[in-house]
Amino acid sequence: MIVHTGEALIDFFSTALTNGKLAFVPVPGGSPYSTAVATARLGVPSAFLGKISDDFFGDTLVSTLLTNGVDTRFVLRGPEPTTLAFVRSTRSRDVEYAFFANSAADRAFLPEEIPSLPPEVTAIQFGSISLIGDPVGTSVLELVRRERGRRVLSFDPNIRANLVEDETAYRRRLAEAVSLSTVIKISDEDLAWMSTGVSQEDAVTELLKAGVQLVVVTAGADGATAYTASEEVRVAARQVAVVDTVGAGDSFHGGILAWLHTAGRLDNNTIGKLSTAELAEMLAYAASVSAITCSRAGNDPPRADELPRQ
Length: 310
What we know:
There is one protein chain. By secondary structure, this protein is of the alpha/beta class. The chain has a single domain (2-6, 31-80, 105-303), classed as Ribokinase (UDP-N-acetylmuramoyl-L-alanine:D-glutamate ligase). The chain is built from 8 helices and 13 strands. The strands form 2 sheets. Strands 5-4-1-8-9-10-11-12-13 form a 9-stranded mixed beta sheet, sandwiched between helices. Helix 1 (31-41) packs across helix 7 and helix 7 runs antiparallel to helix 8 (276-294). The longest helix is centred in the C-terminal third of the chain and has 19 residues, at 276-294. It is globular, with a radius of gyration of 18 Å.
């Protein structure tokens, strides 16, 4: 089982009305939450760990997890409101976000609320905006520290710099998260933000020196590259008619984890030893998952039977 921990929120996607005004449609989201749905749809036992509001948006978040086969035994409910994120697509098909998260339930996850994990949990996926604030940022890192060496730890920074109030403290937190991770899935833009003035190759080298076994850098339409201490493999992006890119990175991350699980490689002793052929197959699989997500509106990752045969 893969446990996903971090933010769970409602994305409001913009849609144009006939009178020229915008309306916003609510869809469950949040990076770790979306990756949990993606891995579950790909047939991997998956669970979500975190706090979700007991308001009606929270009910939607929980029911969506259950509908998609995500285990909710590690979900806490709280009286705090649900985080809301308004999403607007630009002409370039990029997206802009506006977050409303003060005193929200997913940010109120306390260290003393961290549960014990059963033996069947093989990996923990974490990251994104949950590392910015407290107490949830402290709780996520405490969980990851506790589980280091016992499970695969897969990290996606998914940086939203406009939400960061104390950049120095946030960079320290990111550095610790990197040092604890087995796998890092990161966009080229996030890697550049984390490693200002350093080439991508040098930035990846530093991540590997920090103890990360597998680094996957995504570059949108320019494909993705996987790095281990001995291998470097790049695959092109799958060509699709893009509807929007919301959830593309989360789906890609889910594809990586699902492939590792299915291939029997979701293990601290084997991830760093993946062959060139295995890395290429893993990236191609994740690229297919992400491409299908981009071809549909509103962060809607595919199920395993929708993917082309490898």
